[in-house]
Every structure is written in structure tokens, then in C-alpha cells.
């Protein structure tokens, strides 16, 4: 599956489109995020709270649909595009 | 509402008047409308410019900054000779020069929890051209409580976001419940910003404002438009009203008095005594 990163997340990673693979018969968005963080560990403290939850201001998208309700438990498949979407504030 | 446009107005607004969608009635509505623009910076500049040109009769401008030379790369209503002048005065002079039909109400102060409700109350619609999360969350909350539509827009370096928040639609907190912790996301002064980017995003905000005022088209309600200047690409991110939203959900706040806008702007327990 492919991750798409926006704004400061893409800056921090140094890339805005990243392919990852998950070796699991029923992969979740959490597995895909783990695979992303294995390659880009500098994102970890940006996407997780101190308690290990996904930051509430980050929207998780799967194929353009907002799946923040099911969050990291959302089932995903190999050809999915996932995205992490933060708010920006400049004016 | 008066439909009697004078000869000068018939000429000035002729390209609006000949459209079926706006026409004389829509133009008269614009002339009778009032919009509060929060921030006369990168986003506010094109918003003020186009809403004034469109003949929005009353434009309120809130900003407590003065024009700096480093603003001029993107804040197109301010000129080199305005450096050091309050932005609200520079904005008012720009509008006076552009369109005598428009009255500018200058508010040379910072939007705060103490003055937000009072400032918003006099306007039909608010456009958020601010440059920080506390003001954005404050505006969302205050506009929702006052049932005033809010057109949100924001930029980061080469990317921008626009969404429209109407009283019966989802609010900004349905999408982003809390702001990132201060310092997490660097600001324009740190990262830089492509000068034309807030022009693009501000023009989209002005478009939404005109549509809402005239009552035409499909506003970006429940949709966040994301714009990437480097790829010249857009994405539409749909979002829904959250039943747990601390502002527009069941049992949401009925006052901003207890909300702390200094850090993440979070609302833990909307009504602790309810």
C-alpha cells in the first residue's frame, strides 16, 4: 500500500508518497503505519501521543475516505492509498 | 432590500448582472451584505480585494499588526509606502480606492475570547484569514455559537486548505478536534511560504463567501479542499459531523468562556456540570 503525507508530515519524512508492504493476511492501517515508521522513525513522535495513540488532529484517509472513526484498526489491502492529514494554520 | 442600482453600479457590476446566477438581485444582496475578514495578511489581502471589488457593502477587517516589508511578497493590498502603517488602515485605503460602494469597518485589535462574540455579531459571514491555531479554533467556536457561517482557509509553505463551516454542517473541530501542540507545526516565518499561495487560497475563500452570500452553487461544506502548489493538485477530503464534537455535537459547549485557547485549544468535557 502507499502512504501519502501532507504538510509538515511530508517535510519531516522528506517525501510525500511512500510505498510500504505489510506481511500479514489481514493487514490494518496500524500495520501499514508501523511499516511507514520503520522506514521513517522521525515521524513517530509527530503522529503518536505520549500514550501511543494516533494524534487526534491527524486525519486518517483510506482511498480518499476519512476513516478516523475506525482509525488504526481499519482493514487495508495492498492496493490502498492511505493518507495522514494534519491541519495547517498559516495565513 | 433595494434593487435600485444606480447607473455607475449597473456599469461597475455589469459582468455580475448579466449572469443568471447573480443578476441584479444577487448584486443587491452583495451590496446589502456584511463580511468580517479576520486578518489582513496573505489570505485576508485577496479576500478583501475581491469582496470589495464584488461590491460586498460592508467589510469588517480585524488585525492588530502593522505592515512589514516582508509582508509585501504576498499581501497584495499593502504597498511599499504602507510599511509601518496599521494593516487595517492600509486595507481601508485600498478598498476606498477600489470601490466607493464599500464601507470598511476597521478593528485594530487582535481577535480574542473577550471580543469575538461582539465582533462577529454584526456580520452575515466571517472569513478566517488568521495565521495561528488559537484564533482558528476561537473563530470556529464563536461562529458556531452565533450561527454565523465561516469560511476557513490556511496555508503551509506550498500547500493550502479550504473548508466552509455553516451552522447546520460539521464544524472545524469535527475534522480536527484539537490543534497540534504549540511548536509542532512550524509557522510561515520559520518555513517560508510561496507568495502566490495565500493568493490562491484566499481567492477560493472569497469565492465561497460570494456563493454563500448570493446563495448559489455548492459550498465546501463537509469537504476540505487541499491544494498542493508544487504539483498543482487538489484533493477533496470529505468529513462528517461528529456526534462527540465538543462544539456542535450533542451536549456541546454553549459558551467559549471556559475554553483555553492557549495550547491545543482542546475541550475535554464540554459541560462538566450538565
Task: Describe the secondary structure blueprint for this structure.
The complex is a heterodimer of chains A (91) and B (274).
Chain A: E1 2-5, H1 7-13, E2 17-19, H2 29-39, H3 44-47, E3 59-62, E4 65-66, E5 81-85
Parallel strand pairs in A: 1-5
Antiparallel strand pairs in A: 1-2, 3-4, 3-5
Chain B: H1 7-12, H2 14-17, H3 23-31, E1 34-38, H4 44-53, E2 58-62, H5 87-98, E3 103-107, H6 116-121, E4 125-128, H7 133-146, E5 150-156, E6 159-165, H8 172-175, H9 188-191, H10 197-214, E7 223-228, E8 233-238
Parallel strand pairs in B: 1-2, 1-4, 2-3, 4-5
Antiparallel strand pairs in B: 5-6, 6-7, 7-8
Structural features, described:
The complex is a heterodimer of chains A (91) and B (274). By secondary structure, chain A is an alpha+beta fold. Chain A has a single domain, classed as Ubiquitin-like (UB roll). Chain A is 24% helix and 20% strand. In chain A, strands 2-1-5-3-4 form a five-stranded mixed β-sheet. Chain A starts with a strand and ends in a 6-residue tail after the last strand. Chain B has a single domain, classed as Rossmann fold. In chain B, strand 5 and strand 6 form a beta hairpin. Classes of the chains: A alpha+beta (91), B alpha/beta (274). Chains A and B meet through helix 1 and strand 4 of A and strand 5, strand 6 and strand 8 of B. Chain B: This is Adenylyltransferase.
